[in-house]
Amino acid sequence: MPGQKLSYPGRNYLFCPGPTHIPQAVQNAMIVPQEDHRAPDFPELVKPLLRDVKKIFKTTKGTCFLFPATGTAGWEIALANTMSPGDKILTTRFGQFSHLWYELACRIGLEVDLVETPWGEGVPVDKFKKILQADKKHEIKAVVCCHNETATGVTSDIAAVGKMLKQIKHPALLMVDCVSSVASIDFRMDQWGVDVAVSGSQKGFMLPAGMAILAFSPRALAKRKTAKCARCFLDIQDHLNTNKDGFFPYTPSVPMLRGLRAAIDLILQEGLENTFTRHHRLAEGVRLAVKAWGLKTCAKSAKWHSDTVTAILVPENKNANEVIHIAYHKYNISLGAGLSKVAGKVFRIGHLGDNNEARMMAALGTVEMALLDAGIKIKPGSGVAAAGEYYRKTGKKIKKFAAPKAPAKKKAPAKKKATKRKATIK
């Protein structure tokens, strides 16, 4: 058919940082007959789901919301339900997604105090502290941060931001984009003092794109009563009115809800801490491969390294888009492209969601072939070897293999001595 991708043997593997692979159990949960979202038993799905999403955000105090939308809508939900036109927020730009949230804030009528940060670094806590300390009248109503900047493979220290706000006693709300971190990297809403957490379905939740998943603290929830930003479809009040009874204010995507139920069950079954450990191991293997290739990450130092995506710089005389083009058209895998300031300079390997060592080894081997095909000089097999050794040495311990013992040979039964019968004469 026109526009349809040519069929290749096997499947297209997603090593962009979202969408991610969907586990079979989640796909199976979504392939269900259409359901009545007003049915009397529908709350049996919704109420436990809203309760268990809180476990993923690590909040007992927060209220969670599920919108049939995306993470971008989640940004607007966070701001529009807590702010009024002309309110001032503090944010920083160090990648494409932190830039887009800043741009959205401007477009809905907020005043933004923007701190420019080099791409490859994260939230500048010290600079934020000086600005907030100088804000004696508390005109800054919210501090807006991107926990994991997907464009550059950078993770920021949100715990330090929350600690700083508490230390200087500034009343600004702390809003965090955790779209590519929650359910993959440790995120502690209550402990870190996060007021609004924004996520999406297509990353660590291992679902298709199409659901904005948010959590509001009691403090943020109270702001809806004074917020004057225009909102209708994105108004959390409509959800509060209906969620309490196990329903939604408008038609939800029921298959997505079924999929979310299955995804959360998988995450909780593995255990959140085990999930974080797995993501760190996979990411560390990728970083060792990059080092073995003689290349560098976009993240400027180890403290910024992301455990969900690695952005890799190509040599200055090469174009990263060629690597991506070859990987896709020749080897049938999808890598993340460089965005905005780093377009053509980096390609990205996503290592979040439903992944394991074998899948990452396949990705690294394929990336090596694409790099060589693009004329980038690396030693064939070097990255795969470095990652493989790390995965092998840090993998889970298993019982030592014991070959089954050969069955003991049965002794032949002893032959009975023949007894001669005495002849009897009649």
What does this structure look like?
With 426 residues, this protein is α/β, with parallel strands linked by helices. The protein has helices at residues 24-30, 43-57, 71-80, 96-107, 125-134, 158-168, 189-192, 218-222, 236-243, 254-270, 272-293, 320-331, 357-373, 382-394; strands at residues 13-15, 63-67, 88-93, 111-116, 140-146, 148-149, 154-155, 173-177, 196-200, 212-216, 296-297, 309-313, 333-337, 346-350. The strands form 3 sheets. The chain has a 7-stranded mixed β-sheet with strand order 2-10-9-8-5-3-4, with helices on both faces. Strands 1-13-14-12-11 form a 5-stranded mixed β-sheet, covered by helices on one side. Strands 6-7 form a two-stranded antiparallel sheet. Strand 3, helix 4 and strand 4 form a beta-alpha-beta unit. Helix 10 packs across helix 11 (272-293) and helix 11 packs antiparallel against helix 14. It starts with 12 loop residues before the first strand and ends in a 32-residue tail after the last helix.
Overview in brief:
Helices cover about 40% and strands about 15% of the residues.
CATH architecture classification of the largest domain? 3-Layer(aba) Sandwich
The structure class reads alpha/beta
Biggest sheet descriptor? 7 strands, mixed
The whole-number mean of residue pLDDT values reads 94
Helix content: 25-40%
| H/I helix tally | 14
Task: Count the E strands.
Answer: 14
- The fourth-level CATH homologous superfamily of the largest domain is Type I PLP-dependent aspartate aminotransferase-like (Major domain)
How far apart the termini lie comes to 104 Å
Overall geometric form: globular
Top-tier CATH class of the largest domain: Alpha Beta
